[in-house]
Amino acid sequence: MKQEAHRSQPKFERIQKYGMMRFEEYATEWKATQRDLGPASVRHLDSLLQHHLFPLLGSRRMNSFDHKVVEGFIQEMERNGVGLATQSNAFDKLRAILLDAHRLGLFSESPFSGVKAPQYDPTRAVIPSPQQLRGIRSAGDETFTLFVDLMSGCGLRNGEAAAVNLDNIVANDVYRIREQVNQTTAEYGPLKHRRPNDYRDVPLPARVKQTIERYATKHGTVDGYLLRHPKDPARAFPYYGLSNQWRRIKERKQDDVPQGMVLYGLRHFFASNCLTHGIPITDVAEWMGHKNIDVTFKIYRHLMPGSISKAARILDLDLAA
User: Fold this and answer.
1) Which residue has the higher pLDDT, 135 or 183?
2) At CA 228, angle to CA 165 and CA 146, rounded to 5?
3) Is 172 in contact with 204 (CB distance < 8 Å)?
């Protein structure tokens, strides 16, 4: 669509042609020009378009976009409980599409002028208390309890918990995370930020180990996997099996779920539990699978209040001796 032939058209012709075009049509033609994308990237792009961009913006005329529309899109994702990583990815794709239109001359100024991209805000993270966590883990079925224990006790991501495997218990107190269920493809794949066959070892609390073994004993496994598709054991566990149950739990409003908490709050609990008990942030970063410690520090620095004062008191012990 946006090839040199179109760019050589007079500006008023481009504005007339593309300005009245609906976003879904424009984005579909823009996607056809992204020939450098690999198969996995194409599937990811399709998922973002179909599940996030088109439902909210698909029918909107291209010439109606401005910073208010973009801000509204971000706010709507927040209201819908879309995870921060997905918010960021959807925002990046919208920006690529609209900046392409901006280069064609559809907007007098960038529709992203003054817009703050979705970013993690520690003050907005809702982390359950230990008492609330106990209520949450018993609010759903046994599958939900398994997810809660893996995420809050071992720091697993949703997709990593969906790929829980009995063979990954490599020691009484160590669980080896080898793969995840990719939300886009619904298939097993490598860990985030890792190459195929890479893994990371995480602490395995006794209670989480008991939950895994109890579930396996009661429900059995397939090639060691505890969770499979409810209608086809040959397939991986579908993400919606967790998200739908979480939505129903929150809608009941009778369970001990903190206001504003999302499922990722269970992983936040793991980090909080580690850091408030003095476990080094370098270890926490490794266990959570962060690309580098800067990510961990940026997200969880607020969970270590008073660390400077504590350090001053400790350092003073030998100085005063």
Assistant:
1) 135
2) 60
3) yes
